[in-house]
């Protein structure tokens, strides 16, 4: 431990020489999202008011296949053949080319990275000095459309989002880069589901019809989360999907992006 | 002390179990059975089991885009690739090990609530399955009956509206009575942003679903699922049992088969049987089993008798019955006769009587004369006068007419095709126009002319319908017809 | 637009480099309170699905560094809790005690108990120590441990435990007692809190019996 700490500064010097190039690659990706509040779909008995969201910055686009492929070359421990089952199940990177091979074309490389487990997504974000966005951060950004911070009461906006859910996943994914919302973040809806940092904080009862009947022994604290806004089907479905997953799971419709708190002092 | 603790623990473990609940027929016996599931409208064969067994059911959820009408496609979320989902058949008392698989290509997680399951959520709490995963839970089928199953993942209404429902039959221990055919039909309402039969890929419309205003009401998920060469079939003399479910999500069904009466209905899918039923109510999320014997060949239409759903939303299916006719039960059309309704006043009774007589082949001269008299008045009498004398210099007489005496039959042509030009009747000349009177039908013309020949001092005679028909068909050469 | 990111980039590069260094040094001397990112490589001496594949460093109620994998070689009963939990967590402790009570003294000696806090912000070493003392836990075999927030999230993900912080400082969390076998695989789990779960106890005994 002590030895590596001494070696640090030497490597740091070498690293800083390469810093501009790396900084250029990573800096282009994010936008600041100002602090605010959001009336979350997750109502917890003790706390019915809107949730405060501190300022943070978020990637404009989901992580692409090309970007994740580069990460796999840099961190071979996350390659399919090497990773532990604890962190990635049998579906991890299904359909991806071998790490040495590139994606067949630029269009494929620009598609969002899917078939990625939570652990792998988290590791990617950590390699960028970031983390996955929290559920609240995602919900806050997802409430916005092109012009408004909260478009959730607009039936047209909801219908657009639901339209994506209606399309089956059998067709190929389009590349990243859809319409930006009011914060400048793209593809929050309509492309892929996305991992969140606290996916295992979504203590939703597997049978959501039990309404406000918390099983206090099953879920310590305030009981299972009651879904407050049952009209917001778009968010409800995202919640249902995330709560059905374990950290090692991956699906063909689930990608991710990274976020970091505005202040770097926070861990 | 530790030893005695262990002994106590063992004794507790060996204590008698709680008494069995009603319908619990004991532990499974015999080899493990893999349930045969069928796609609609087929039903798996009877289990034929005499004792409870362990049954393994494997059901896969697939999200797919298929037609809901001609040129209209919709993304359905399906159990087993069909809407409704696969039919499951077990026996009361069976221990069912249920495997729910969610295809890796699915976007959504899914679960299942079987109404035949006694347990939390009907299995929903234990079967929440992410895409690319499989869940397993086990239940004992304690109650016999025909039950709905459906997905119960939030938002539940949307999952059901997208076709995630089906039927599970739990046979009574003695099995169901034997019939010739069993079929599986399930009604559902569907909500699209486009209008009925608007072409293209149609997305789900949540607003319409909440307002309970469906775009389509369909049997087995698509228009034409059970029509044409996909109609369900049977032969005369056979008995058919339909397991009819209502997946909804919103509407209640008034199920009726046009032309048939249900001999037996296990209404609500329960144990009691109602007999001689025309239309049975199937609740949303409910089912019924109807049985009827087919005696007459033809196409029987299965409908929801909230009738606009049939014509404007597609709730129609066909049962095609073939075989020999039996006219003692149903004859087909026998008579097409004139029904004069409130025109049957006193003076036209004769006409009605003549029509009926003609139909039954018993028309007499008297009938014709009486009818002709009633019809003459107000039509021919306008020109030829009530006593047939005509108008001197204008309209020839019919009374003691030498024109008619020469050839009574030429009157037919005069009535049907008209008559004009120079004419001599009873020594007087006439040069006038008689317009064709082709409004009366053949019977009426025959009756009128028969009356004329037998009245006003004419010599008698009879004109028959067939003769009028022949003359009507043989139109004279163009030169003769004066037009009208 | 991305000014926030550019300003912070230099600091991020440094953090990234240090993380990479930590990764390189992970096998020999893992830094405390951090999971090494490149440690995803499956450790050959452990089964592919072992919880110990997660190289997580914890701190116990005595302030000692404790590796998650320190239980390798014998069965471990694991759970996650927080000290200010009024309702379920005390029952969790009792359930663990009741489970242990069903074992023979010889069996008990070969089982350790690990309870990791989901509230590291409040559950300092001192608080953990006080809790252990108040509940009269046998600290020769029981450890109450803490780690950083990211580590807690990862451990919960690996164990399949859900938790969520509430505004009033309380937590919503799922209840689970988990049995890790001697190789760190999850061999059994129970949510039964009113006394020992007989099926769970049987699995604990079976794990012990399988030891060389």
Top keywords for this entry?
heterotrimer; B: 484 residues; alpha/beta; six-stranded mixed beta sheet; 11 helices; disordered C terminus; C: 212 residues; alpha+beta; seven-stranded mixed beta sheet; two-stranded antiparallel sheet; 6 helices; 35% helix; disordered N terminus
- Helix amount of chain C: 25-40%
Annotation field: number of helices of chain B: 11
Question: Shape of chain B, please?
Answer: elongated
Estimate percent helicity of chain B.
10-25%
> Structural class of the helices, strands and pairings of chain B?
alpha/beta
Distance from N terminus to C terminus of chain C (CA atoms, Å) equals: 62 Å
Overall radius of gyration of chain B: 37 Å
Shape descriptor of chain C reads globular
How far apart are the first and last residues' alpha carbons of chain B, in Å? 124 Å
- H/E order of the elements of chain C? HEEEHHEHEHEEEEH
How many H/I helices of chain C?
A: 6
Determine Rg of chain C (CA atoms, Å): 18 Å
Q: Report the β-strand fraction of chain B as a percent range.
A: 25-35%
Main interface by residue count: A-C, 70 and 67 residues
The low-pLDDT segments of chain B are 11-16, 478-484
List the helices and strands and how they pair.
The complex is a heterotrimer of chains A (267), B (484) and C (212).
Chain A: H1 2-27, E1 30-33, E2 36-38, E3 42-43, E4 51-53, E5 56-59, H2 65-74, H3 106-109, H4 118-127, H5 135-142, H6 155-166, E6 193-194, E7 219-220, E8 226-227, H7 233-243, E9 254-255, E10 259-261
Parallel strand pairs in A: 6-9
Antiparallel strand pairs in A: 1-5, 2-4, 3-8, 5-10
Chain B: H1 2-13, E1 33-34, E2 54-69, E3 72-79, E4 88-91, E5 95-102, E6 113-114, E7 133-140, E8 145-150, H2 156-161, E9 165-171, E10 181-190, E11 200-202, H3 206-211, E12 216-219, E13 232-235, E14 239-248, E15 253-258, E16 262-266, E17 274-277, E18 279-282, E19 286-293, E20 298-304, H4 308-313, E21 316-322, H5 349-359, H6 365-376, H7 381-384, H8 402-406, H9 410-417, E22 419-425, E23 428-434, H10 442-453, H11 465-473
Parallel strand pairs in B: 1-2, 2-5, 3-11, 4-9, 10-14, 13-21
Antiparallel strand pairs in B: 2-3, 5-7, 6-8, 8-9, 10-12, 14-19, 15-18, 15-20, 16-17, 16-19, 20-21, 22-23
Chain C: H1 3-25, E1 57-60, E2 65-67, E3 76-81, H2 88-101, H3 105-109, E4 112-117, H4 125-134, E5 142-146, H5 149-159, E6 163-165, E7 171-174, E8 177-180, E9 186-190, H6 198-209
Parallel strand pairs in C: 3-4, 4-5
Antiparallel strand pairs in C: 1-2, 1-5, 3-8, 6-7, 8-9
């Amino acid at each position: 431990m002590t030895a590596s700490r001494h070696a640090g500064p030497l490597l740091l010097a070498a690293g800083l020489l390469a810093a501009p190039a790396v900084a250029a690659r990573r800096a282009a990706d994010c936008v600041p999202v100002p602090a605010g509040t959001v009336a979350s779909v997750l109502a917890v008995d003790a706390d019915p008011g809107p949730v405060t969201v501190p300022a943070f910055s978020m990637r404009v686009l989901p992580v692409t296949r090309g970007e994740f492929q580069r990460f796999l070359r840099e961190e071979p421990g996350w390659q399919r053949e090497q990773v532990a089952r604890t962190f990635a199940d049998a579906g991890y990177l299904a359909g991806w080319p071998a790490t040495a091979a590139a994606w067949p074309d630029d269009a494929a490389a620009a598609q969002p990275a899917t078939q990625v487990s939570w652990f792998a997504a988290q590791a990617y974000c950590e390699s960028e000095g970031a983390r996955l966005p929290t559920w609240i951060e995602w919900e806050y950004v997802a409430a916005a459309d092109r012009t408004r911070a909260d478009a959730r009461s607009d039936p047209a906006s909801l219908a657009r989002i639901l339209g994506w859910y209606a399309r089956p996943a059998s067709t190929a994914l389009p590349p990243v880069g859809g319409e930006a919302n009011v914060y400048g973040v793209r593809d929050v809806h309509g492309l892929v589901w996305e991992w969140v940092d606290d996916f295992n904080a979504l203590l939703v009862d597997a049978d959501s019809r039990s309404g406000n009947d918390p099983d206090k022994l099953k879920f310590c604290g305030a009981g299972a989360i009651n879904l407050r806004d049952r009209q917001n089907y778009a968010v409800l479905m995202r919640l249902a999907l995330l709560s059905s997953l374990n950290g090692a799971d991956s699906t063909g419709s689930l990608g991710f992006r990274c976020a970091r708190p505005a202040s770097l002092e926070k861990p | 002390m530790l030893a005695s603790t262990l002994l106590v623990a063992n004794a507790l473990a060996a204590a008698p179990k709680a008494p069995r609940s009603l319908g619990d027929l004991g532990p499974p016996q015999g080899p493990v059975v893999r349930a045969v599931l069928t796609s609609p409208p087929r039903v798996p064969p009877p289990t034929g089991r005499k004792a409870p067994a362990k049954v393994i059911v494997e059901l896969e959820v697939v999200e797919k885009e298929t037609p809901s009408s001609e040129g209209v496609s919709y993304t359905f979320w399906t159990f087993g690739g069909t809407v409704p989902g696969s039919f499951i058949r077990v026996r009361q008392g069976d221990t069912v090990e249920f495997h729910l698989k969610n295809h890796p290509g699915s976007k959504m997680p899914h679960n299942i609530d079987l109404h035949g399951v006694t347990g939390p959520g009907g299995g929903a709490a234990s079967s929440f399955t992410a895409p690319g995963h499989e869940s397993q839970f086990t239940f004992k089928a304690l109650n016999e009956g025909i039950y709905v199953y459906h997905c119960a993942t939030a938002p539940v209404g949307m999952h059901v509206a997208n076709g995630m429902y089906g039927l599970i039959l739990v046979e009574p221990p003695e099995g169901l009575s034997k019939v010739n055919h069993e079929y599986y039909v399930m009604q559902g309402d569907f909500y699209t942003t486009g209008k009925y039969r608007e072409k293209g890929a149609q997305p789900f419309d949540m607003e319409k679903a909440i307002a309970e205003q469906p775009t389509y009401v369909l049997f087995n998920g698509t228009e034409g699922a059970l029509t044409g060469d996909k109609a369900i079939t049977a032969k005369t003399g056979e008995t058919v049992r339909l397991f009819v479910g209502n997946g909804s999500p919103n509407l209640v069904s008034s199920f009726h088969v046009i032309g048939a009466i249900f001999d037996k209905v296990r209404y609500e899918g329960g144990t009691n049987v109602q007999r001689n039923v025309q239309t049975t109510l199937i609740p949303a999320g409910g089912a019924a089993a109807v049985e009827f014997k087919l005696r007459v060949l033809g196409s029987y239409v299965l409908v929801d008798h909230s009738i606009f759903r049939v014509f404007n939303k597609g709730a129609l299916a066909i049962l095609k019955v073939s075989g020999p006719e039996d006219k003692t039960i149903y004859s087909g059309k026998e008579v097409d006769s004139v029904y004069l309704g409130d025109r049957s006043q006193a003076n036209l009774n004769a006409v009605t009587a003549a029509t009926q007589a003609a139909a039954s082949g018993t028309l007499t001269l008297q009938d014709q004369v009486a009818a002709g008299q009633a019809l003459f008045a107000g039509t021919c009498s306008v020109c030829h006068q009530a006593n047939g004398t005509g108008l001197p210099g204008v309209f020839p007489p019919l009374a003691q007419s030498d024109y008619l005496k020469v050839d009574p039959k030429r009157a037919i042509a005069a009535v049907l095709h008209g008559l004009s030009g120079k004419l001599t009747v009873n020594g007087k000349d006439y040069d006038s126009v008689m317009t064709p009177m082709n409004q009366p039908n053949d019977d009426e013309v025959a009756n009128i002319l028969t009356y004329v020949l037998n009245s006003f001092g004419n010599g008698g005679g009879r004109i028959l319908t067939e003769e009028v028909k022949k003359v009507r068909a043989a139109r004279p050469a163009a030169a003769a017809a004066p037009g009208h | 637009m991305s000014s926030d990111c550019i300003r912070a980039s230099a600091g991020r590069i440094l953090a990234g480099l240090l993380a990479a260094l930590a990764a390189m040094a992970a096998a020999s001397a893992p830094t405390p309170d951090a999971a090494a990112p490149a440690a995803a490589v499956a450790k050959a001496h452990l089964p592919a699905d072992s919880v110990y594949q997660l190289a997580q460093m914890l701190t116990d109620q005595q302030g000692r560094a404790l590796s998650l994998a320190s239980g390798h070689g014998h069965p471990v009963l694991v759970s996650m809790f927080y000290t200010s939990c009024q309702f379920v967590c005390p029952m969790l402790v009792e359930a663990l005690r009741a489970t242990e009570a069903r074992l023979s003294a010889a069996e008990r000696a070969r089982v350790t108990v690990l309870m990791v806090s989901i509230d590291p912000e409040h559950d300092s070493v001192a608080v953990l120590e006080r809790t252990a003392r108040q509940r009269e836990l046998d600290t020769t075999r029981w450890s109450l441990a803490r780690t950083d927030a990211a580590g807690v999230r990862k451990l919960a993900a690996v164990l399949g435990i859900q938790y969520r912080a509430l505004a009033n400082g309380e937590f919503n969390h799922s209840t689970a007692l988990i049995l890790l076998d001697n190789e760190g695989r999850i061999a059994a789990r129970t949510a039964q809190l009113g006394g020992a779960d007989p099926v769970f106890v049987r699995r604990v005994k079976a794990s012990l019996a399988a030891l060389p």
